[in-house]
Amino acid sequence: MSNPPDLLELLSGVVLSAVAAAVGYRRASLNASGVIGAMITGTILFGIGGWEWGLLLLVFFFSSSFLSHYREKDKVGLAEKFSKGNRRDLAQALANAGVASVLALASLFWNRQVLYLGCVGAMAAVNADTWATELGVLSQRAPRLITNGRPVTVGTSGGITALGMAATLGGAGLIGLVAALAAAIGGQEAGIVVGAVVVALIGGLTGALLDSLLGATVQAIYWCDRCKKETEQQVHRCGTPTRKIRGRNWMNNDVVNFLASLLGALIALGIGANLG
Ligand SMILES: [Zn+2]
Question: Contact, 42 vs 57, CB < 8 A?
């Protein structure tokens, strides 16, 4: 089927993503450049992909910003009141929703159903990873490094816990459920509806595992002197600038998230192409 972009859909895409971005800015989940990133990706996903695509971005956006504020005090201790390093910027927005947006653009020319499953895989991967990060740090048990199984301190990149794995499946599963519901409401055939859950779980899990693997090996990792904690950010969530302790400069958190969502999308596209 061909998919000419509809002016009304594009327009509602702009409005919807502007509203979501404004809420994100007010809730301190986005900075000014993050608002631009949310508007670009939101407009493409809603306006060119359609509401089923844009909905996945909203689920990711609101569930991850809710979880990043969830038990914030337990995550940063007393430094919480100085918190200002937690807003998403343009690079983060593109790292999280860039792959899904490119797939939405591709849907103008190629099989829309299969590409939608790719979008599900991409968003499941970033959602799974965000959930794992935000909830995994609350684990009472020491994480183990994904590469060699050694116990590491909570918050160490590449460390995995049972709680983090459960959060990974939860984050991927939520994207899968919403995508399946949207596909069913949109009148898609059963294969696409069931496929959405399957690609979300598999794409989300492999994307999150790649994220942990890169975090344990080549990702640039920093140290916050104030909180005495390892972090993936150059400015810690407490607002303190951090210093690099290992990894490659260019392999930052945004590149890692982008690669995880790319892997999630490719796996989902592979599965989707065999469904359709
Ligand atoms: Zn800190």
Answer: yes
Q: Return d(Cα 262, Cα 94) in angstroms, integer.
A: 12
20: nearest Cα among 59, 67, 52: 59
Give the torsion through C-alpha atoms of 251, 221, 234, 245, to 10 deg.
Answer: -120
- Kindly give the confidence (pLDDT) of every residue in the chain, 276 residues in length, as a single tens digit, with 9 standing for 90 and above: 345 667 888 888 888 889 888 988 888 778 889 899 999 999 999 999 999 999 999 999 889 888 877 777 776 654 444 444 567 889 988 999 999 999 999 999 999 999 999 999 999 999 999 999 889 888 888 889 999 999 988 878 898 999 999 999 999 999 999 999 999 999 999 999 999 999 999 999 999 999 999 999 999 999 999 988 888 888 887 888 999 999 999 999 899 999 999 999 999 999 999 885
In contact, 125 and 208? CB cutoff 8 Å: yes
134: CA distance to ligand 1 center in Å?
Answer: 15
Token look-up 């816990």 returns 161
C-alpha 176/C-alpha 197 separation (Å) is: 4
Q: Measured in angstroms, how far is the CA atom of residue 239 from the centroid of ligand 1?
A: 7
Cα angle 149, 153, 156 (rounded to 5 degrees) comes to: 80
Maximum Cα–Cα distance for the chain, whole Å?
56
In angstroms, what is the span from residue 26 Cα to ligand 1's centroid? 23
Q: Are strands 229-231 and 243-246 parallel, antiparallel or unpaired?
A: unpaired
Q: How far is the CA of 227 from the centre of ligand 1 (A)?
A: 4
Q: Which amino acid, 253?
A: N
Q: Please report, for the chain, the start and end positions of each structural domain, with discontinuous segments joined by +.
A: 7-72+87-275
**How far is residue 44's CA from residue 55's CA, in Å, rounded to a whole number?**
12
